[in-house]
Amino acid sequence: MKYHTQPLVLFLSSTLMLFAGVVRAQEQPTLRDRAEELYRRYEYAHATQLYLKLVDTRKPRLEDLERLSDSYWKMNDYESAVKWYAKLIAHEDHTPEQLLRYGEALKANGKYTEAKRQLEAYALSTGDGAAVALQLAGCDSALRWMANPTMHRLRNEREVNTPRSEFSVFSSGKHVFYAGEPSEATTSDTYGWTGNPFLQVFAAPMTSTGELGSGTIFDELNSETRFHIGPVTASADGGTLYVTQTHAHKAGEFVRESVRRYRTQLLELYCYQRKGDRWIGEPFAYNNVSAYSLGHAALSPDGNTLYFISDMPGGQGGTDIWYSERQLNGSWGSPINAGAVINSAGDELFPNVAADGIMYFASDGFAGMGGLDVFQAMGSKGKWSNPVNLGYPVNSATDDFAYLVHSEYPDGLRGFLSSNRPGGVGRDDIYSFSYTEPKIFLILQGTTSDKTSGEPLSNVTVTLVDGDRQVIGRKDSEAGAFAFELDPGRTYNVSGQKQGYSADSAAVSTLGITASDTLRIALLLEPAYRVGQTFELKNIYYDFDKHDIRADAARVLDELVRILDDNQTLKIELSSHTDSRGSRLYNEALSKRRAKAAVDYLASRGIAPDRLVARGYGETRPVNDCSDSVPCSREAHQANRRTEITVLAY
């Protein structure tokens, strides 16, 4: 029986396996199976069409809503993403991570107040406020930047933009290169992520004012590769092109790519040299597509440093900006990370270096308005200033990148920017921009008054001089008021003079002022000095048994220097007084030394000695009852150690 059983079991097993195989062969993949396969292959444009059918039910599945929302997000269709994320978080089983994605989608639509609410809800539900701190800061900054836009003026370059994507302009002479999706595929291939043809390099003419003419495919660079090529950077002489292109992977291999962000493991950099009427390409020495991506080249103004982006090991996170230095033999040295100041935990992309050494680059790793924002930093190689967001309207709630300055003029500059903001022609569009330095209006408004009565003084001659003592303007006050226009970044002195009054003056500075403003001062003129008039210089004190000028006394004497400068006919006596401690003869000698020390100080500050007389009165003129043998406090004695001024001539 055992002899017969084993073949029977084998026969039955084989039959069942054959039957199961036939059944599987006859089964057709479900709608969800096909949608999941397209999603797995990153063909989001096709997957959304199937997921829309799957969620068209009274109780759609959470997983289907999530896949549909994420597909729109990854296609940068933020408006549709918000619509479906809203339905997703209304599902009773939604997760905190889906709140986060909804908040990010709202931010990408410029709905910053609602975005903050969802991001804060995520932080509350997870306890992880640090995860959304950058996004929340970006929402607050975006509202502030939109309320205070920069002087950039943007123009959509409709001659080159199509309903598809055009981006990343590089100017070379009287034309530009840019990357774009052809209106018709040159092969049967399309890009499943967007459903459009793969990128190619285009060229377009550029006018002297930076406007672009109609673009055409630059056939000399577009090889037979089935995948993306572009963007392009050229050397100063136009003889070398640095071209980013997608590595041609094996057929059937699924890879994750993005037209805009190039978060891919397949980017390579090629260096093309002009040989006669042809461009001959060589791979960059440090390409390694099996381990990392490398592309988006930019040259330093002197051509000796090549910047690029890569996610190679040793970076700060995502894609970083790296650089190589040109060696003596003309080759490029080993890549060096540009450092943690300009590289974040997110993605840095599309660097460009202007003639003045400013690097412009796109990033989603610093506080921004949404998606990629454009930043600038000053420096070179691995030393950079902190990145500064260029604000609105350069940046928007969506992706803004590939900022290039192609020309500068005395008060501004011109260039190009790429963006997928609403209102464009297609997905990614090229914008030209002009930027004019804002005119800063600084007005000095002042008043002239009688110091004793407080009444306004008319017909005061007010003189404005700069830091070099050059007269900038002079006018008479009317009804006790005057005004001057000032320049930024300078120092000034304003003085007022009127017959029968002592002059008054004030220092004014516009250093550090970066916005239009009105500065205000008050000139207080005292009635003219009378011969014999005596007044005390407040806070001119001396330490016990000393005649040195203390630091606090020096500040008061500096004010006396200003008064003497403003009143060139004024001649004074400086009288010094002591307390009653010590002998009368000693105190008289001490007071003379103190008076002479004050006069010497004034002379050292440029006051003519013949305008100054020193007198020492010792303890003979106390201001209180602290005479010999009268017990007094330290403060009462110090009040007697003073300096007074008497007008001798005016």
Give an overview of the whole structure.
By secondary structure, the protein is of the alpha+beta class. Helices cover about 25% and strands about 30% of the residues. It is built from 11 helices and 32 strands. Strands 14, 15, 16, 17 and 18 form a 5-stranded antiparallel sheet that branches. β14 and β15 form a beta hairpin. α3 packs antiparallel against α4, α5 packs antiparallel against α6 and α7 runs antiparallel to α8. The chain is elongated and about 120 Å long. Residues about 1-25 and about 250-265 have low confidence and may be disordered.
Radius of gyration: 39 Å
Look at the structure and give the mean pLDDT. 85
How is the quaternary structure best described? single chain
Quote the distance from N terminus to C terminus.
143 Å
Strand content: 25-35%
For the largest beta-sheet, the strand count, sense and barrel status come to: 5 strands, antiparallel
Helix-and-strand structural type: alpha+beta
Short description:
This protein is α+β, with helices and mostly antiparallel strands. The chain is built from eleven helices and 32 strands. The longest helix has 25 residues, at 2-26.
Features:
single chain, about 650 residues, alpha+beta, 11 helices, 32 strands
List the helices and strands and how they pair.
Elements: H1 2-26, H2 31-40, H3 44-54, H4 62-74, H5 78-90, H6 96-108, H7 112-126, H8 133-147, E1 152-156, E2 166-172, E3 175-180, E4 200-205, E5 216-217, E6 229-234, E7 240-246, E8 267-275, E9 278-283, E10 294-299, E11 305-310, E12 320-325, E13 336-337, E14 348-353, E15 358-363, E16 373-380, E17 383-384, E18 388-389, E19 400-409, E20 412-419, E21 429-436, E22 442-450, E23 461-466, E24 471-476, E25 481-486, E26 491-497, E27 504-509, E28 517-525, E29 534-536, H9 551-566, E30 571-576, H10 584-604, E31 612-616, H11 634-640, E32 643-649
Parallel strand pairs: 22-28, 30-31
Antiparallel strand pairs: 1-21, 2-3, 3-4, 4-5, 6-7, 7-8, 8-9, 10-11, 11-12, 12-13, 14-15, 15-16, 16-17, 16-18, 19-20, 20-21, 22-25, 23-24, 23-26, 26-27, 29-32, 30-32
